[in-house]
Amino acid sequence: MMRMMTKIAAAGLATMIALPASAAITTREDNMAQPQGWSAVAGMDPREVREMARSLPPTTDVSPDKPWCDHRAQVEQSLTNEFGEARIGSNGGDTALWGSEQMGTWTVVLERADATSCIIASGTGFTTGANPSAYLTRVGLAR
User: How far apart are CA 74 and CA 106, in angstroms?
Assistant: First the structure.
C-alpha cells in the first residue's frame, strides 16, 4: 500500500510540474466551469503519449518522460482509491475517461488488450453528466 501511495504521489508531482506556468490556483466553481487538462508527459502532445503508451511494459516506476503503465487492475484501484474516480466512458476505442465530481478530477486512460492501462492525460473541472468527449477534446484525444 505504501508503494502505491508513493507512486501516486510521484505521478501527482509529475503532473504538477507539467502544469503551464500560467496555471493559477482557482476555486472549485471556476474549475467546474472551465475544465483544464494536461498531458501525462510535460511538453508532449497527448496523442504522442498515447502512441508511446501502446508498447510500454507495465511498471511500478514513475518517470517524468513517459506515462505510467501498469496492470489494469492496479491503475483502476489507484484511480478509485486515491482520487475517487470511476470509469465514465470511452472514445469508442481504447481511450477511456475516468472522473470524480467529489475531487473535481479526471483522467484519460489507454486501455490495452493485454490488460495493461496507461495514464495519458489528466485534468481538473470534472462534472458528472458532462459529455466525456468534452474532456477528451480538451487534451486533443476526441475521435
Answer: 17
CA distance 90 to 95: 6
- pLDDT tens-digit profile of 4-40? 444 544 444 344 434 444 455 556 566 556 677 888 8
- CB contact set of 57 (below 8 Å; sequence gap of 6+): 69, 116
Q: How far apart are CA 72 and CA 119, in angstroms?
A: 11
- pLDDT tens figures, 37-53: 888 898 898 889 999 99
71-117 tens-digit pLDDT: 999 999 999 999 999 999 888 788 999 999 888 999 999 999 999 99
Domains of the chain, residue spans: 2-18+27-138
Residue 127, CA distances (Å) to 100, 111, 133 in order: 7, 22, 13
Q: Which among 106, 116, 122, 120 has a CA at the least distance from the CA of 73?
A: 116
Question: CA torsion, points 46, 132, 58, 4, in degrees to nearest 10?
Answer: 110
